[in-house]
Amino acid sequence: MSTLSDTEKAQLRAFLGYAQFNRFRNPKLESALDLIDGGAETMIRAEIVEVLAVNAALRGTTRTIAGIAQADDARFFGRKDGNRFDELRREGHMHIARISKTLDVPVRDGSDWFSTESSEPSNWSGTGYAIGGSRGNEIKLG
To answer: Which of 16, 31, 25, 33 lies closest to 112, judged by CA?
Structure first.
């Protein structure tokens, strides 16, 4: 039985691209969060720490590339064919992929924890129906 805290479960849902509400839409993830054993929990907690560290580093990276304080002292480092921001995102995606594999739950399509874009609406409310007349005929609303 899992001893993951509610906060850890919320972080895992967010990393994998699933909403905190309407959890019935992914029973496999919810079951995995409740049933993982101690060894897997240790691995998951280590990956949560890594994802949060990458996130903090990304915030620091975006702050440092916002401007140059002194142009004559500008130094460039890292690979010539990429930048630190992309490297950190790749590292973060690797840690989220490890979480996905450990829980055997895929990352939701179109989800990127490190993106600045919001996620696609889930249409979680579905199609509504009104019950009409004494015979119980359903009238589609959407």
So the answer is: 16
Angle between helices 6-16 and 38-64 (to 10 degrees): 60
Q: Indicate whether 93 belongs to any domain.
A: yes
In a domain, 132, yes or no: no
Nearest to residue 118, comparing CAs of 21, 7, 17?
A: 17
Rounded Cα distance, 46 and 13, in Å:
16
Say yes or no to pLDDT of 26 above 70.
yes
State the Cα–Cα distance between residues 103 and 40, nearest whole angstrom: 8
Beta bridge partners of 130: 139
State pLDDT tens for residues 77-110: 555 545 888 899 899 999 999 999 999 999 988 7
Residue-number span of the structural domain to which 41 is assigned: 6-115
Whole-number Å distance between alpha carbons of 88 and 81 = 14
- Determine, yes or no, domain membership for 66: yes
Q: In whole angstroms, how far apart are CA 132 and each of 3, 70, 125, 137, 142?
A: 48, 72, 21, 5, 15
Per the structure, the count of domains in the chain is 1
E strands present in 7-114: none
Residue 122 lies in a domain: no
